[in-house]
Design a protein that fits this description.
single chain
Length: 586
């Protein structure tokens, strides 16, 4: 309302317009300031200082104190402890001056400075080329002008040419860069398409007609089979030749590597045996001369003195399952390692120990399955027949320096399905082939014959518990087989042998009859562990069993044993003395 009144009253004062105008302006200003001061407290909000809780409270002196910071061009990431070797002082010293330059970005450009040597050379080269071109063009124009108009004076031609040259020189020519290829243009040449044709001769044709009979078809198939077999033989021969070459290369490399060791191998072995004989001299003396004087006062009792002890580090967790002395080298003994427990079957091992060196075995063979039995050939002492827990049999040759056996049975050539408990070499057959026998818990006695580097098997007899078969599923007839544990062949009659079983029975069998037994002995109540013929009496044999008994039999009287010995413990093995017919050990 005050503003409207002032505006209405202002033009009424006509005496001094300037003065009235001045008064009107001052009043409006006063009114505005009054309104602003009245409403200032309403729309202006008070500012409150917000401070963090952990802010330091500094005094005015501390706030006014100045701290100077100097910015340097040093690289904070440059190492300050670089050490170099001083050849002058012959020691390591720390470098005082460190390169502080840090390159963050670098780009190689294609520009040249106009005052540089390269730019001057390019400019001079371009000017010389242009001068040459302009001179050639001017000469061409002059010749053409002279031919067309002979009346034109020569002075004018020279003046025109001179003016043209000056105008071209005055033009600023662009300096090309030899490193920039974007300004260069090229035109590709499109090759014209061509057509080419050739004429070939048609393949020769001939008409053929014939009648195919059954025998012609058969002959064609037979020829095809022969061709396929020949191709297979070629492939096998090529593979064998490659394997032989590889083995020869391997052997040559091994020979080269072990050539130095092989030279002193025999001498080192002799020296080792001499050292062992000196260390074990007390044992050898005890073996020859030791006697216990107290044996005279013991009735039917004696003492045992342990002499040599054979051990091998890798066979410590294995049980000794078989021992066999070499028939020719009496100081050499073969030992088989395995395990009789079904759940703890792992690997096996065969070691040959000599009494001349008890500290380390002479030969070592590792096997995949545990060794259950072994036998050395009486004539070829380097051949060893071995029976394994997995049912396979193998033949090792000690003369060959190879870990694998030379013959081994598999599932394809009659392998046993249960552990092999005994193997035994026999005399060569009529064709002079080596052969040995094996007995297993699967109820079979098998003859193994070595023929042309192969192992052939023949089932000698199956240990049937009864001749009456039992009915199986789907109307099949099955025979219950006994579990063979041991056997022994007669020393006077080659074809007669005895077989002991886990059922306690002993069967007298013949190699010629595979369908029936010669006699059956109701020998023991538990498993028969060993059966041995007497060395001197051909009719007497001895047996031992897990029922704590040892029995001596006459094979002509199968009903009752001649002698029975109760040892109050399970008897694992029994053997006759080689020097007496009435002494045995168990």
């Amino acid at each position: 309302m005050k503003r409207s009144q002032s505006k209405n009253k202002a033009p009424a004062k006509l005496g001094n317009p300037a003065k009235g105008k001045k008064q009107g302006v001052s009043r409006d200003d006063d009114d505005r300031t009054d309104i602003a001061e009245e409403n200032l407290d309403e729309w202006m909000q008070s500012k409150t200082m917000v401070k963090p809780e952990d802010q330091l409270e500094l005094t005015e002196v501390e706030l006014k104190e100045e701290y100077t910071r100097i910015l340097t061009a040093n690289n904070p990431h440059a190492p300050s402890n670089i050490v170099r070797y001083s050849y002058k002082d012959r020691s390591y010293k720390q470098i005082s001056s460190v390169d502080q330059l840090a390159i963050h970005f670098s780009l190689e450009g294609t520009l040249l400075h106009k005052d540089s040597d390269e730019a001057r050379r390019q400019k001079a080269k371009a000017e010389s080329a242009e001068v040459k071109v302009t001179s050639d063009v001017a000469s061409d124009h002059a010749s053409e002008a002279g031919g067309e108009d002979d009346e034109q004076p020569e002075g004018e031609d020279k003046m025109e040419a001179g003016t043209d040259m000056d105008g071209q020189d005055k033009k600023d020519k662009k300096l090309t860069n030899q490193f920039n290829f974007s300004e260069r243009a090229s035109q590709t040449f499109n090759n014209p398409s061509r057509e080419r044709g050739t004429v070939t001769e048609p393949p020769p044709r001939a008409s053929f007609s014939a009648t195919a009979n059954q025998w012609e078809i058969y002959d064609a198939y037979a020829e095809d089979l022969e061709r396929q077999e020949k191709a297979k033989e070629k492939k096998t021969t090529i593979i064998k030749e490659k394997k032989e070459e590889y083995k020869k290369k391997k052997l040559t490399t091994l020979d080269l590597q072990t050539d130095d060791i092989s030279k002193i191998n025999k001498a080192s072995k002799i020296v080792e045996r001499m050292v062992n004989q000196n260390t074990y001299d007390d044992i050898a003396q005890d073996f020859k001369y030791w006697e216990d004087a107290a044996d005279e006062f013991r009735d039917q009792e004696g003492t045992l003195l342990p002499l040599w002890k054979y051990s091998y580090d890798k066979s410590k967790r294995l049980a000794v399952s078989a021992i066999c002395w070499n028939p020719k080298y009496h100081d050499l003994v073969a030992v088989g390692y395995g395990s009789y427990e079904f759940l703890k079957q792992s690997r096996g091992m065969i070691c040959f120990y000599s009494m001349k060196n008890p500290s380390y075995p002479e030969y070592i063979y590792s096997t995949e399955s545990g060794v259950m039995c072994l036998d050395i050939h009486p004539e070829h002492q380097f051949l060893v027949a071995v029976g394994f827990y997995d049912g396979s049999v193998a033949v090792y040759n000690v003369q060959e320096k190879v870990q694998d056996p030379i013959y081994k049975s598999t599932a394809n050539n009659g392998k046993h399905t249960d552990p092999v408990w005994q193997v035994s070499w026999q005399k060569d057959d009529l064709d002079n082939h080596l052969n040995f026998y094996s007995v297993s818990s699967d109820g079979r006695v098998v003859m193994w014959t070595i023929v042309k580097n192969e192992l052939h098997h023949t089932n000698v007899i199956e240990l049937r518990m009864s001749d009456i078969p039992t009915e199986g599923p789907n109307g099949t007839q099955l025979f219950n087989l006994g579990c063979g544990t041991s056997f022994d062949f007669s020393r006077t009659v080659d074809y007669i042998f005895l077989v002991g079983t886990e059922e306690g029975k002993i069967y007298k069998c013949s190699k010629a009859y595979s369908s029936q037994y010669l006699d059956t002995y109701e020998a023991h109540h538990m498993a028969v562990y060993s059966v041995r013929w007497n060395y001197y009496h051909p009719d007497i044999f001895i047996s031992c069993s897990a029922d704590w008994t040892i029995k001596i039999w006459d094979h002509t009287h199968p009903k009752e044993p001649m002698f029975t010995f109760d040892l109050n413990s399970s008897v694992g093995d029994v053997a006759w003395a080689p020097y007496s017919s009435t002494v045995f050990a168990a």
